[in-house]
Amino acid sequence: xxxxxxxxxxxxxxxxxxxxxxxxxxxxxxxxxxxxxxxxxxxxxxxxxxxxxxxxxxxxxxxxxxxxxxxxxxxxxxxxxxxxxxxxxxxxxxxxxxxxxxxxxxxxxxxxxxxxxxxxxxxxxxxxxxxxxxxxxxxxxxxxxxxxxxxxxxxxxxxxxxxxxxxxxxxxxxxxxxxxxxxxxxxxxxxxxxxxxxxxxxxxxxxxxxxxxxxxxxxxxxxxxxxxxxxxxxxxxxxxxxxxxxxxxxxxxxxxxxxxxxxxxxxxxxxxxxxxxxxxxxxxxxxxxxxxxxxxxxxxxxxxxxxxxxxxxxxxxxxxxxxxxxxxxxxxxxxxxxxxxxxxxxxxxxxxxxxxxxxxxxxxxxxxxxxxxxxxxxxxxxxxxxxxxxxxxxxxxxxxxxxxxxxxxxxxxxxxxxxxxxxxxxx
Length: 427
Prior knowledge:
Layout: H1 19-43, H2 50-72, H3 79-98, H4 112-121, H5 124-143, H6 159-238, H7 243-277, E1 281-282, H8 283-290, H9 292-295, E2 301-306, E3 316-317, H10 321-337, E4 341-348, E5 352-359, H11 366-370, H12 390-400, E6 404-409, E7 415-422
Parallel strand pairs: 2-4
Antiparallel strand pairs: 1-3, 4-5, 5-7, 6-7
C-alpha cells in the first residue's frame, strides 16, 4: 500500500459549505430568541426593553432572508462569508445579553455555539478570530450591561462571581474550539483517505470496463476489415489496373493489415486485463495471483497453506481490487516486521473465505492493538512517510466486501490477521 500513489491531503479542497445548514440553524436560534423574549416579558412579568431587543432579532431575520435569497439563486457560501455570519451571530447575541443582564443571563452559554460551528467547518485562523471576538464581547458584558429584572428586589451578584463567570466562559470557549477543531481535522483526514480509496477503486473498475469495451470492439471490427481485405484482393486479381490504381489498392491492403494488427494487440491486452481481474479461478490461485508482483520482491520466505478437504470443494473467485489492496497492505506490514517467514493460511466454508496472515515478528504493541483499525494508529507514525492509515484502509476495503478483519498477537511472538469475506462478494 505504501507503493501506491495518493494525492497529498493539502491538495484536496474541501467542498464549499451548504448554506441551508447555516440558514436552518439560525432560523431555529432566532425563533428561540423571539419566543424566550416574549415569554419572559409577557408570561413571567419581567419588563424588557422590547423595542431594541426586537430590533436586534429583526436584524438577524433580515440577514437570514438575505442568505435564503442567495441560496435560491444557486450561490454557495465560501469560508469568508460564513465567518462573517458567525461573527454577526456573536455580536447579535452580545447585544441581546446587554439588555438582559450580561453574563449573568443563563443564555450567555450560547456564545459557545458559533465557536463550535467555526471549529467544525472553518480553518484555524477563522476559529481563533471568533474566539477573540467572543472573549472581547464577554469582557464588555462583564462591565457594561443592563441589570437583571429582579435586581430591584435586592438580588446582587458579587463582582468576583461575575469575574468567575467570565473566566469560565473564556476557558470553555477555548477548550470547545480546540477539541472540536481536532475532531473535525481527524474526520476530514478520514474522509479524504476514504475518498482517495473510492477514486482508486473506481479507476480500477474503469480499467476493467474499458478492457471489456476494447474486446468487444476488436471482435466487431474484425469481420468488416476481413471483408474489405478480401474485396481488395479480388480487385487486384480481376481488374485491369494501371500503376496508380494498383498502388492505391496495395496501400489500402497494407492499411487493413495494420488495422488488424492493432486490433489484435488491443484484444490481447484487454483479454489479459479481464483475465487478471474478472475471470473466476480457484480461491488460492486467485489470492496468490493478486499479490504475486508484490511478494516476488520479498526477501522473507512466504509459506502458503491451503485447505484440502474433499467435503468442501475450493470456491472460485475473481480478483477484486478491494481484496488485492488489502492483502498487499497486510503483507507489506508483515514483511516489514517478520524475522524469518510469513505464513498465509487459506481456508473456507460454504459461505465465506478465510485468509490468515501470520508473521514471526515482534507483534502489535498494546497501544496499537487497542485502537486497531483507527486512522493515524501506527508504531511507525511519521517514520519514512508512514501516516498510520494502512490498517484503517484494510478495514475499509474489507467492509466494502461485507467482510470482517480481526487482529491479534501470537505466543511466544508474532502477529496475526484474519480476513473473512463472503464468497458472493468475490464473484
